Amino acid sequence: MVRRANELSVTLEPHLKGGKGTTRVVNILEKDRMFGTGRLFGVSIIPVGGSIGQHTHSGDFETYYILKGKAKVNDNGTEYILEPGDMTQCKDGDFHAIENIGDCDLEYIAVITYSETHKDEI
Length: 122
Description:
Blueprint: E1 10-14, E2 22-29, E3 38-46, E4 51-56, E5 60-68, E6 71-75, E7 78-82, E8 87-90, E9 95-100, E10 106-114, H1 116-121
GO molecular function: metal ion binding
Keywords: Metal-binding
Organism: Candidatus Lachnoclostridium stercoravium
């Protein structure tokens, strides 16, 4: 399968998880193309001053890989500053949040994969 950049769907998520601004998600793979392994593989773009609010993962885990910008990440209550090339992962049962604290759009790859406990429920 090959999909060109102009064929990828884009989702706009205002105030995602109670965050600020509108997060744009370029869907590299939609849920139905992940064949039961997860629900998101995309590039998330948060504008300057925007954020995704704190939320807990249940039945899945999420990995971020920073491509552009500067992020403040709350990883289960501990804050970190991430820049291009850095990654963070929120495990099943843990919580996280991310905020763009830079002077340009924050862009990162986001992958949400189901945990083993979720697979047992399928």
